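name: query_chain
kind: protein
chains: 1
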Amino acid sequence: MRTWCVTVLLVCGTLTGSAAPAATAAPCARAAAARAGRWFDARPPLPDRNPGRHLLEGSHILRAAAVDPADPRVVVATDGTRVQRSDDGGCTWREVWDVGVEDVVTEIAALDVAHVGGRSRVLLVLVTEPPRPYANLARFQVVRSEDGRTGWATVHTAFGVLTSYHSDPVALVRSGAGGVAYAALPSLAAGTYSYVRSADGTTWEDRTPPADPDATVGLTGVAVSPWNADEVWEWGVFGASRLRVSLDGALTWRTVDPWPTYEDDPSWLLADVAWPRRGGPARVVVAGGSPPSSTTAADPAAVLAWSGDGGATWGLSFPPKPLSLVEGPLASTARGDVVVAGRDGTVFLVPHSGRIPRRAEWRTLAPLGPPEPMATTHLGYDADRASATSPGVVLVPGLQRLRLLTVAP
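structure:
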């Protein structure tokens, strides 16, 4: 694994003109920055667009981004109307697709990159704002490109109700084992989501049961196992935060309590699920805030609810210093370690070793830096997801930039 990490960085250095330390003077210093353990700021082009076409936030804002899980040089991002792709770790970019619809409000709400058949397959979810007087009834389309460059085509269409919860992604799409993909799309019941599943990214089937009284309202995250495509986790934070798991491909769900030792659960917004070992259980982490007497409820002290056995048992892990995780991203390395960033830009790597990490085991990484002006991790689109790939390239989306960090395995 360590050899592969070095190989990836050398390839990236070659693409930018040099693998030597002199790469820092090159137009793009991606390889040198990664080797030095610094965050690299990738800035996809954000062409001028009519702000009126954007449903929530206006133009010049990134809506979603993802990295190929098998090739960290491939980074895909969108501002809602155009898809930008980098094949050199964020050094250079080129446009590979455009919504191309000017007469109605249609935007890209979510994207996913999966390594299928040796290529970087890309799935998008488009949302079309309904014409009046149809209130919030919107059309959702899943668009697929087999190689993430060409052949873009609509492969599924559904209708659902848009909500006004700006802290929720409009839709989510995620891939897992064998390239099996799930799309979580707003349903006709306001605030809830319906799942569709595809084995090949082209043919989709409904996986939502006829009635789900415990459906998560305000869905904010979905994860699919890379070893078992039937294992799906979801979490949402509108009203009462909820974490659920399905072991039959989103047909039935079981609610998981990450805070069994708390009478009143800490407030939480973020979760992360990883599968460090084939055939092994999920490693699940929920980042919350437990307000001790030394803090205020408005800025609670950080605590991680940590499970290494698929949510069967839970323990608590605390950072070595006061830290707020209210808006900090979470991501996992290939071995299940967690990269967590505080609201102040402090970044830690929390090791996964088969037990609850102790405070002394939290390792400081390069700081993420101050947030962008008016930045928020929840843009109403799929922009609040940090992601990580083997050998451990962590990507944190921002308003106008993507920050990437290579973490040694």
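note: The CA atoms of residues 386 and 396 lie 5 Å apart.
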